[in-house]
Amino acid sequence: MITEDDPDFVTRSRAKWKRAMPQLDTEPMELLGRINRISAQSLNQQERILAYRGISRSEFDVLCSLARSERPLRASEVTSSTMLSGAATTKLTSRLESIGLIERSRSDRDGRVVMLRLTEEGHSIVEEQLPLCLDQDRHFINGLDAEERSTLAELLRKVSANAETAARD
């Protein structure tokens, strides 16, 4: 039952849309509205966790992209792995370099290409902050057993594949 006094934000929103525009089928909000809401809440929590270290979530995404890599990355590789714009990557990497968390160097193969890598301090921040962010994520899935988590992950994988296809069209 969709009611405006339901404790769930998405259910309340759907009820209000049903009243405001009864001809609309708001069923996609049942899933995507929740995905977006959970994402926004997760990102907000991560921003709070990272504020202690004086870095933003986007800056942390850049650091994590470099930490996952077995080699220095080109800025374009960081851009594609973080879903940031090229301009944002440039701005963020400039700041991260200025505070000593990453280093830039020229490619040995092509001197025009700038390579990015973490400094020891950058590694330390990832090693310190990533577990805190993962603990926060675990809190969001608290109450789901292993089978439910697996089912949810598989269903979201399908939704994600559809989103990737739609983004290319």
Write up this protein.
With 169 residues, the protein is mainly alpha-helical. The chain folds into two domains: 1-51; 54-168, Orthogonal Bundle (Arc Repressor Mutant, subunit A). It is 67% helix and 7% strand. The chain is built from seven helices and three strands; from the N terminus they run H-H-H-E-H-H-E-E-H-H. A three-stranded antiparallel sheet has the order 1-3-2. A hairpin with a 7-residue loop joins strand 2 and strand 3. The longest helix has 25 residues, at 27-51.
What order do the strands of the largest sheet run in, or round the barrel if closed? 1-3-2
Low-confidence stretches: none
What does the overall shape look like?
Answer: elongated
Specify the CATH class of the largest domain. Answer: Mainly Alpha
Domain HTH marR-type: 25-161
Protein name: MarR family transcriptional regulator
Organism: Brevibacterium picturae
InterPro entries: HTH_MarR-typ, MarR/SlyA-like, WH-like_DNA-bd_sf, WH_DNA-bd_sf
Features:
single chain, 169 residues, mainly alpha, Arc Repressor Mutant, subunit A, 2 domains, 3-stranded antiparallel sheet, 7 helices, 3 strands
